[in-house]
Design a protein that fits this description.
This protein is mainly alpha-helical. It has five helices and no strands. The two termini are about 40 Å apart.
């Protein structure tokens, strides 16, 4: 017996339906990706990943740094402004890296691992920023230059660490 789609009819199927409950929950697991997509048959090579990671990083840094400066202009202290701008930049980076750079399927494990990595990187980046800015301000650099140079150094350390961990652990093709 066949169904209207021409497939054999099974009364008890071991295969989950195409739109399973897990698929419908993906938006709750990965709020930036509501639907399931498959891992690519041919993963991107290292050079392509590095270029895409760099471009994603540039866009994410624009979001992060731009929001940092806007929040400080609005009167927020540099510590709180950096914390909020980091979250915005991180969400941008995660969405683009998962989908475009590493072309990885959304999963709870990947989402949790990425958020764990970002939490650690927040500590590293924010900590470096908070240490460096007062040092540069003591050199009479002014707030703009002190926060800019502090941002670049902290971002550089976080970027290199993020790429290595994401490529070798979180988004490696299995």
């Amino acid at each position: 017996m066949t169904t209207s789609s021409g497939r054999p009819a099974h009364h008890e199927s071991a295969d989950p339906p195409e739109d399973s409950v897990l698929d419908s929950l993906r938006g709750a697991v990965d709020p930036l990706e509501p639907r399931h997509e498959s891992d690519p048959a041919a993963p991107t090579d290292l050079k392509t990943q590095v270029i895409r990671f760099f471009l994603t990083g540039v866009l994410s840094a624009i979001v992060d740094y731009g929001l940092l400066q806007l929040l400080m202009l609005a009167g927020l202290g540099h510590g709180a402004a950096k914390a909020l701008s980091f979250v915005a930049g991180t969400l941008t980076a995660y969405a683009l890296n998962r989908r475009w750079t590493f072309q990885a399927e959304p999963s709870r494990a990947r989402f949790a691992a990425t958020m764990g990595l970002y939490a650690v990187m927040f500590g590293v980046q924010w900590g470096l920023f908070m240490v460096l800015v007062p040092i540069f301000e003591d050199q009479n650099w002014g707030t703009f230059w002190a926060t800019t140079v502090g941002y670049v150094i902290a971002q550089g350390v976080a970027t290199v660490t993020n790429f290595i961990v994401q490529r070798t652990v979180i988004f490696r093709v299995r």
